[in-house]
Write a structure and sequence with these properties.
Layout lengths: L1 E8 L3 H21 L1 E9 L14 E2 L3 H4 L6 E4 L6 H11 L3 E4 L2 H17 L4 E2 L10 H8 L5 E7 L2 H12 L4 H10 L7 H5 L2 H15 L9 E2 L7 H9 L2 E12 L2 E12 L11 E8 L3 E8 L3 H20 L22 E10 L5 H11 L4 E6 L7 E7 L2 E2 H12 L5 E10 L4
Parallel strand pairs: 1-2, 1-4, 2-3, 4-5, 5-6, 8-10, 10-17
Antiparallel strand pairs: 7-9, 7-11, 9-10, 11-12, 13-15, 13-16, 13-17, 14-15
Helix pairs in contact: 1-11, 3-4, 4-9, 6-7, 12-13
Bound molecules: L-homoserine.
The site of L-homoserine has 11 residues, from helix 6.
Length: 427
């Protein structure tokens, strides 16, 4: 009988989900794959979170797993880049297959870890590191193998998508929605990673290697989070037929790969706009597939555990059948487009005094910087400052940003720091 002996390290949100599903679905997993999954050891700081029926497997020393002769596959679910790094290295050095959901570590140290795996003739499964339950890694690696990726747009962070949805639909404020996401187990230990776009950038960097066959580190990505988004921006977007989403974007351009994680206004009728709460989505265009979209739960215990288990069995099958062609996750650096040179449409919100010449001054600065206005709106108001909303045609990001910096220097007319957001209409 085919079997795989695994050791699980880390019993947090995802680790406990993995235990729960394997325990419940053992028979089904065997019937579907012909492989028996045996949990040999489980490691965490203490066994307080562990059901007593697993206590005989418990250890607080992870080396008992990574160095065990009996274990074939190490499942690292600690997260972060300190202990988890030591664990992953030790597992690979001891020629174990490695399954992980650790996007931060693979994004930072992936080259070293994938090279180590290759030298030991083992593989690393990281389906759960991007898009939770969605089989996005496998889809890119095998389902789209004949294609060249042209663009990829992802809602890659459940916490921020949850916050933006709650702010729009339930008029919640930012902190209320964030603490609810944390309570539901979506957020990273440090929520800055979520709200400042770092988690999404880690995931985008992993996807870019696979999709564009190019090594991308998070330093190559322009990153902005959602902390500058207020309820007012969300309402303005709605009134313009738009919705704000935190998107991870990678696009092939003549200047190289354009890479960004930032809040973007998108048309309400675009499929990405309908993706709500903790759902994640990867929308892409490739040479042969045309536009396609994968959607599913991107965070949470059982959805993420479902992807970990899919990896345990996929790599068990490859190991058992002694698949000689190792998967290639090593890529070379390629050309990256400079963020200032990239072109986009922009939404600009200014708060100004209501006096003669204000509009003239603003439009003059934009015109001088080659930024063409596509619409401008000031609602009737007796109170100053008044809100001016400008939408631009496609313009160079650098020109828009320098215009806004110049406009904001006019402290006599600009009463609050201006806000700009990119607007993607997919045309
Ligand atoms: N904090 C992540 C999110 C969890 O909110 O999407 C899954 O990576």
């Amino acid at each position: 009988m085919n079997h795989i002996n695994i050791g699980i390290i880390g019993l947090g949100t995802v680790g406990s989900g993995v235990l729960e599903i394997i325990n419940k679905e053992k028979e089904k997993l065997f019937t579907e794959t012909g492989i028996q999954v045996n949990i040999v050891k489980i490691c965490d700081k203490d066994n307080s979170k562990l059901d007593s029926k697993f206590h005989s497997m418990f250890t607080s020393n992870w080396k008992e797993i990574t160095e065990s002769k009996e274990i074939d596959t190490v499942v690292e679910l600690i997260g972060g880049n300190t202990v988890a790094y030591e664990v992953q290295k030790s597992a690979l050095e001891n020629s174990k297959f490695l399954i992980t959901a650790n996007k931060a570590l693979l994004s930072e140290k992936g080259q070293e870890l994938f090279a180590l795996a290759k030298s030991k003739n083992v593989e690393i499964g990281f389906e759960a590191s991007v898009g939770g339950a969605i089989p996005v890694i496998r889809s890119i690696k095998t389902g789209l193998v004949s294609n060249e990726f042209l663009s990829l747009y992802g809602i890659l962070n459940g916490t921020t998508n949850f916050i933006l949805t709650k702010m729009e639909e339930e008029d919640m404020d930012y902190f209320e929605a964030l603490s609810l996401a944390q309570k539901l187990g979506f957020a990273e230990q440090d929520p800055t990673f979520d709200v400042e776009g770092i988690d999404a950038a880690h995931k985008l960097s992993l996807l870019c290697g696979l999709a564009f066959k190019q090594k991308v580190s998070i330093e190559d990505i322009s990153i902005e989070g959602i902390s500058k988004i207020s309820k007012s921006e969300i309402k303005q977007a709605k009134s313009l037929g738009l919705r704000i989403k935190l998107l991870g974007i990678a696009k092939k351009t003549e200047q190289g790969l354009e890479l960004r994680v930032s809040p973007i206004m998108i048309p309400l009728d675009h499929p990405l706009a309908s993706v709500k709460f903790e759902m994640n989505t990867i929308y892409f265009e490739t040479s042969y597939s045309g536009p396609s979209m994968l959607m599913g739960k991107g965070a949470g215990s059982l959805p993420t555990a479902s992807a970990v288990i899919a990896d345990i069995l996929y790599y068990a099958e490859r190991k058992i059948n002694k698949n000689s062609a190792l998967e290639n996750n090593l890529f070379e650096k390629g050309k990256i487009a400079s963020s200032k040179e990239t072109e986009a449409r922009f939404y600009i919100r200014l708060k100004t005094v209501d006096k003669p010449g204000v509009l003239g001054l603003i439009t003059n600065i934009l015109g001088k910087n080659y930024v063409s206005i596509s619409s401008i709106r000031q609602n009737e108001s007796l109170n100053e400052p008044v809100e001016l909303i400008i939408l631009t045609h496609k313009s160079k990001a650098g020109n828009v940003i320098s215009s806004i910096d110049e406009i904001d220097k006019h402290k006599d007319i600009i009463k609050e720091k201006s806000i700009y957001l990119r607007l993607e209409d997919f045309n």
